[in-house]
Design brief:
13 helices, globular
Length: 317
């Protein structure tokens, strides 16, 4: 009885720690990107920052594999050696994530940190629709209702009562948010299809190859976009402590989501996302002078309800 109680308490502590980590990482992500600017510009190269994010995730995957190899030995499912057929599917999601991650920096020319946290939930809609189209998965009526609520919540949060402009975010910001949502949704669905094609394959091996191609594509982006700046000023030109924290945040966020799926559940992710939206808004009030309007509060509340309904719809499907 005592052993069972101790086990439950241990699981609760682990679940709480993972939830807290995901909430902090999610809420600080947009803030760190905005904070890394100087006089409204990125002094550093965003392509080198993206490259380092992929390199850090690759290193973390290797470290996890090294631990598995030490404890369980090398098996057919956890070895890095692979065939051309298996590895040839990873460049597509890696390229999609490259474009999405680069847009993530440029969207802040049109939207603030709290607005970004709201708009990035549009990827729930794109992911749901692409699930239906690509993986032929049925969506429940509650999920479709959640999509409508999500759109309404995102729009309400962006209403601007102090200007002739109806929405705070201009058309360019909405278009970039929609493109990011589609890219993120397609990459996520495609990656899930890859993983489920060989479910026994260790997830760290699959992540490793995805991140290797991510590094390769980001290296090409550096050559195309920032070659002169890197050659003249150095790879780490314009970097600060905030930039380093931002890179670590991006890398650890992916790991935290995996930990949630392993040690917690989807509801935890929902609560973390909802709390992170409000936390980002509150912190932005003190850091960037963000005006927390009634429209934003109501919109973020509707978005939180929509995310919760979508999660419940998945469980009932």
């Amino acid at each position: 009885m005592l052993g069972g109680s101790s086990n439950v308490q241990s699981k609760w502590k682990r679940k709480s720690a993972v939830t807290l980590a995901l909430t902090v990482l999610t809420s600080s992500q947009a803030i760190l990107i905005v904070w890394s600017k100087r006089a409204g510009k990125y002094e550093y190269s965003v392509t080198t920052a993206n490259f380092l994010v992929e390199a850090l995730k690759c290193a973390l995957s290797l470290a996890a594999l090294a631990r598995i190899w030490r404890n369980e030995g090398v098996t057919e499912d956890n070895r890095l050696n692979t065939s051309l057929d298996e590895v040839s599917v990873y460049p597509i999601p890696a390229a999609l994530y490259l474009v999405k991650n680069l847009l993530q920096y440029y969207i802040f020319a049109y939207v603030d940190a709290p607005g970004y946290q709201i708009l990035k939930n549009l990827n729930i809609i794109s992911t749901g629709v692409l699930y239906r189209i690509i993986l032929k998965k049925q969506l429940s009526e509650m999920q479709w209702a959640a999509f409508i609520l999500l759109c309404a919540g995102c729009t309400t949060a962006q209403l601007n009562s102090n200007s002739d402009q109806v929405l705070q975010t201009p058309v360019e910001g909405w278009l970039m948010a929609i493109v990011m949502a589609v890219l993120s949704g397609f990459a996520g669905v495609y990656t899930e299809a890859i993983i489920k094609k060989r479910p026994s394959r260790n997830i760290n091996v699959q992540n490793f190859w995805l991140y290797v191609f991510g590094m390769a594509f980001n290296a090409i982006a550096i050559l195309v976009q920032d070659f002169d700046a890197v050659m003249n000023k150095g790879f780490f030109h314009g970097y600060s402590l905030v930039t380093v924290l931002m890179i670590m945040n991006h890398a650890l966020s992916g790991i935290a989501v995996s930990m949630v799926m392993k040690y917690a559940d989807n509801i935890v992710k929902v609560y973390s996302t909802s709390v992170a939206m409000l936390l980002t808004a509150v912190l932005s009030v003190f850091l960037f002078g963000f005006h927390l309007s009634l429209a934003f509060f109501l919109g973020s509340t509707v978005v939180s309800v929509a995310i919760y309904l979508h999660s419940i719809g998945k469980l009932q499907r």
